Amino acid sequence: MITDLQNILSTNIKGMKRSAIRELLKFLGQPGLISFSGGFPSPLSFPIEELKSIIAEVMENEAAFALQYGTTEGDDLLRTMLANRYKANGIDVTKDNIIITTASQQALDLISKMFIDPGDDVIVGLPSYLGALQAFGSYGANMIGIPMDDEGEDPNLMEEALKDLASKGKKPKFIYLIPDFQNPTGITMSERRRKEMLELAHKYDVLILEDSPYRELRYEGETQRTLYELDGTGQVVILGTFSKIFCPGFRIGWVVGNPDVLDKIVVGKQATDLCTPPFTQRIAARYMEKGYLDPKIEDIKKMYSVKQKVMLESLEKYMPEEMKWTHPQGGLFLMVTGPEDLDTNALLLECIKEANVAYVAGNSFFCNGKGYNTMRLNFSYESIETNIEGCKRLGSFFKKVLQK
Amino acid sequence: MITDLQNILSTNIKGMKRSAIRELLKFLGQPGLISFSGGFPSPLSFPIEELKSIIAEVMENEAAFALQYGTTEGDDLLRTMLANRYKANGIDVTKDNIIITTASQQALDLISKMFIDPGDDVIVGLPSYLGALQAFGSYGANMIGIPMDDEGEDPNLMEEALKDLASKGKKPKFIYLIPDFQNPTGITMSERRRKEMLELAHKYDVLILEDSPYRELRYEGETQRTLYELDGTGQVVILGTFSKIFCPGFRIGWVVGNPDVLDKIVVGKQATDLCTPPFTQRIAARYMEKGYLDPKIEDIKKMYSVKQKVMLESLEKYMPEEMKWTHPQGGLFLMVTGPEDLDTNALLLECIKEANVAYVAGNSFFCNGKGYNTMRLNFSYESIETNIEGCKRLGSFFKKVLQK
């Protein structure tokens, strides 16, 4: 073995840590552990029977195509199906506005590769999705976190940040937003706030990255128009994924945007993995073509809305009154906030060992290194009964902690 | 749309071009086009019938697992199967020495991310695999090309390069080699040369990246031991892939190496795509478990050895005598060299339009911007008859060109 492995690592990788969430996966095997940690969909949401017949058809009719290399842009049929679906929802795109990625995490990586030189600024929510922070960080981005209220990122603080950068002759490479059922807070951006964000993006000539993995999973309230639609000028890029509405095991995501932007992403993707698996892409395309996706999403919404309701009720019942939490209208997560001096990071292992419940310590989502008194809970993965039991255990655990 | 897209791109992406090979894929739809260009396996090599039954079993018995998120390291069963297969071939590894990647292109990307800061040196063959040059280049590597003879990279020139760097207080981040049926030349490194490379790697304390996508496809001569085995000290990292011996459409590759190196790759992969599709990984694991892989490789070798023989005979018959080519003992490619002033780059479109044959202009494989008089031909994709017809057309085309 070479003698100086640690020394010859790239600057960016030296600064990277293993994902707290991915590392938690190791505990998932622990007997009786209740996991509120990952962003796992319920296995009961997977369309296993539909897939059986579709896969058999693909293997019968087009195996030689599906098992071969594909184009870097992605399966044309899948891109067309996605474009048609956006069009049906009032978003005017064709397949040329869409490329397929190896789930949306790869889109985050490729967009980082495309824009970020070490030290470049990027604006994110405070808090925001850990995987995005990791992707941006892996290219040396300087992240500027904008605190959120219950309508989304604060527009005044956003403008302050943009003005401050402009005063130094700089602008951020992009603004990263998750307008629908944000990860980790579950907060949905109001239409007014969406328009304010777009005004700022236009005023300061900045691209917006609209990450929308949970958008389809609304359990109550009115659907908000996407930033992409409200903008209409090509200044917004949407990231989509099948991971929460179909299955994560296929690793299929996509980017919707201006062809000029997509073209550069494709160049980066050629060097990164050549193409997303044509096999899973073709199965997904046929699945959409047969019209299975939309009824399935309705099923999933029914399933998760009950789980969410039960979790909210259980938290109300079992959590100490010093703790508060968000009340999302959809998605997979909610965020709990405790007293200022609570440290969910320090308590996590104890909670897993004593209460046999896992959460994600909120600190991971705060690019400013704060948020120690918060935690993210997922309600999609465990069964209703287990969600109740988990909240009960979590409540007892934190009651004991706060009494000390 | 923002006004200055070109200006705000990262330094690395500004320097990247679309892959010549990936772009050629666009012509594959042209009627009657004979493609010697891609590194496509024959669709007849895909184990469609075996896969039908395995996929049905996976969907019946373990769909909820295969459709869910997986660990970043990869499917444990697949890693175990791969480790067992290496062990059976005399290479002493366990699953802890193996991680799964989204085909070996991703391994090249992740290893680049792990080691390369802009301006860092990397040693490659002259010529070498275009996708590797792109991956290294996408992180700003400075590539030092070492000319090859018929035993592989020249050890004297290699030592000169290492000495020269050392005299400047530098060393390369790694030496990238494809010892078996190299891409694009088809050349296999002799055992003597392998040992010389390892001596240099030890003397100068440099990691070797042993890319081995074609290793299993030997049609004549004796199998050489891997650099990994000859080394035995953990200074070599192997990149493997199913793309040429199973199917590329699953996008499954792997890295074999010292756990310290793998650990850093995993950290990078978490931010890049979270995990390789668990669905295709589990199918591949069951395929190996049932013992299908090795007999299939024997079938593929029989199929391709005939194709290679036919291409060599046809080139002999049809090509102008000013042109020479390599005579590989395996793999998917051979390299043709013409007179010094030939420019295969400039002639490619003409060749596609007039002769309806596509090759890859050799220039793409030379990190020093040379090699204009070379081209790479693939013999695995087209049928035997088409290979003959393609060589005939290619021969007429170049005879005409050289007579001018």
Give a short synopsis of this structure.
Two copies of one chain form a homodimer. Chain A is of the alpha/beta class and 404 residues long.
Walk me through this protein's architecture:
The structure is a homodimer of 404-residue chains. Chain A is built from 16 helices and 14 strands. With 404 residues, chain A is α/β, with parallel strands linked by helices. Chain A has 2 domains: 5-46 and 295-403, Aspartate Aminotransferase, domain 1, CATH 3.90.1150.10; 48-293, Aspartate Aminotransferase, domain 2, CATH 3.40.640. In chain A, a hairpin with a 2-residue loop joins strand 4 and strand 5 (152-153). Chain A is globular and about 60 Å long. The first copy, chain A, starts with a helix and ends with a helix. The mean pLDDT of chain A is 95.
Descriptive tags:
homodimer; 404 residues; alpha/beta; Aspartate Aminotransferase, domain 1; Aspartate Aminotransferase, domain 2; five-stranded mixed sheet; four-stranded antiparallel sheet; 14 strands; pyridoxal phosphate binding (chains A, B); EC 2.6.1.44 (chains A, B); transferase (chains A, B); aminotransferase (chains A, B)
